[in-house]
Amino acid sequence: MAVTQKAQPATTKGKSFKKKESQESALAGRERKREAKRKGLKPGNRQAAENANQKKGTSGQAKDPRVGSRKPVALVVEKPANVAKPQTKPAQDPLKLAAEQEKKRLRALEQEMEAIENDERLNLLLDKLDGGETLVAADQVWLDAQLERHQQLANALGIEDDDEDEPSTPEDLLQRFIDDDFDPSELDPDYKK
């Protein structure tokens, strides 16, 4: 069997014709393609932008493109007319200095005493002692040192311990009440004897 090919009819219906370009449109297309390939700014764009800004509106001084301070610098060193002397503190009275130093020392002692009184470990150990518990030897040594330092600070600050003054028996309390010169008229002016 022999296969024969059919001859194609010669019609122009299905064919598309290529449009002829003019020389100018071909050049314009190539130029667009070349521009699309390029990335970034044109060379020399930085100076061109500065020149454009100067032309637009900045009248007066031309902007210097160099970086740095625009403060003028004297090339010749001139001696100043009035030399500023360093300010010295006026001499203070030695009594005032001693009083200030004593205040500072007392403030430091008060801060140390406050730190000891607010120490959590010390408070915890004192609570254990009040509860009747026994302490480890290291804790007992530390507690004794803290209490001794607290007593030294109290003596240095002139704080007296009120626990020693309290009477222990009811007779002592009664005698203290009798010995006290209490005048009720000091508190209440309407009180009559």
UniProtKB/TrEMBL annotation:
Compositionally biased spans, kind Basic and acidic residues? 19-34
Note the InterPro entries from the entry: YihI
Stretches of Acidic residues bias are at: 159-169, 180-193
Q: Where is the composition biased (Polar residues)?
A: 1-14, 48-61
The record's keywords, sorted A to Z, are: GTPase activation, Ribosome biogenesis
Q: Does the keyword Hydrolase apply?
A: no
Instruction: Give the function comment from the record.
Output: A GTPase-activating protein (GAP) that modifies Der/EngA GTPase function. May play a role in ribosome biogenesis.
Similarity comment: family membership: Belongs to the YihI family.
Instruction: Supply the HAMAP family for this chain.
Output: GAP_YihI
Instruction: Tell me the subunit arrangement.
Output: Interacts with Der.
Please give the name of this protein. Der GTPase-activating protein YihI
Give the source species. Pseudaeromonas sharmana
